[in-house]
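Extended Data, panel c. Modelled sequence:
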Amino acid sequence: MMKIFTAAAKELLLLQRDRAGLLVLFIMPAILVVVITLVQENVMELTGQKTTRVLFLDQDKGELGVSLQKYLANGHLEIVAWDKKQKDIAAMRAAVTNGDYQVGIVVPAGSSARFHRETARLLQKNARREKGSSGALIPVRVFFDPGIMPGLRSGITAQLQMALQTIAMEAKIEALERMLKGLMARLGVPPEFTPLPGPGLSRRLGQPLLTLENSQVSSRPTGTSPYNPVQQNVPAWALFGMFFTAIPIAGAILQERKSGIWIRLTSLPVSPLLLFTGKILAYIGVCLCQFLLIGLIGSFLFPHIGLPAFTVSRNPAGVLLIVLFSSLAACGYGIFLGMICSTYEQASTLGATTVVAAAAIGGVMVPVYAMPRVMQRLSTISPLNWGLTAFHDLLMRGNALPAILDDLGRLAIFFLLTILLSWKLAQIRR
């Protein structure tokens, strides 16, 4: 055991002297997790998953503008009243075009009165069974920021059209109610025999009978949070940094082989497996520090820059297990690179390329479900995908420890396979 700790101390001493390597292992994933999370949070806002700011100018000051604001406020829209001069539509359009607001809506003056006149006229024409045009439409002007995504534009347009149709339906029901009451009065029918359900018909008919239950919220286990970029990116980029430890591990082995130290070490009464164990023990500590750094950034820095905080409150022991098994897989891959490559240039190029490729297909940079079907199948061969899936099962899906045993088993098999191949190569070179 003393030999293992001595070998681990040697590795830590060598790593301490490699300032550039330490920057790559700690600073790079820390910068990436902040930048990528901020970008994805903004993309969520642009795709309608966050509140969208809508600039609203009510030139009418009537029922139509009030009702439209009420319906739009029920969605993911933040209604901001335009506080400039009433006719200053050009300045309002400029504010939207410049990107200060995503959407601008204008209710022209006289819209409410015209709307009620057109509604009454339409019902009268229908009562007389007249044919022809249904009348002129009352326009509500809307303009968008040219930089918003097409999906958000379509969603807001559909929401606005639905609100206008609901307002029109309620107005028609109210006009129909008034028309029927007047007809009954002219015919001399007493109010108690009036075949109407009473006042408030439009309000009662406007009440929804069917609704969608947000099953994601109702079925989410206690201690978990809905999807947000923080819960995705903190473990993802921590894994990315952990697997980048393969490069300094391979570099240390190649340096020992090139200088002849490896030959002297293996000539001692120690097994190559013992030397490997020392390296693994040292770099597991490095990987734990990497995850701790990224986790602290997510927990304490993110809330100060407008992002949700990263939490592991539900199953910290399971998170620690994932970090340990992922660290083993990363260390095993680094040792394998050090034994199979002949130069540091080969190891650094091959290591960086394979880790970035494994991160790309494993869901670190883009979620797996957003990839083409072929890439989704390929993601199952990435060790980073195994670790990330385990994190998602615990932190976002709220599963218990047995749910991640398959992924932990894959990481363990990957570690054992790389160590076995490295030991065989060490025996051959010996």
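Residues 209-220 have pLDDT under 50 and may be disordered. This feature is highlighted in the accompanying rendering.
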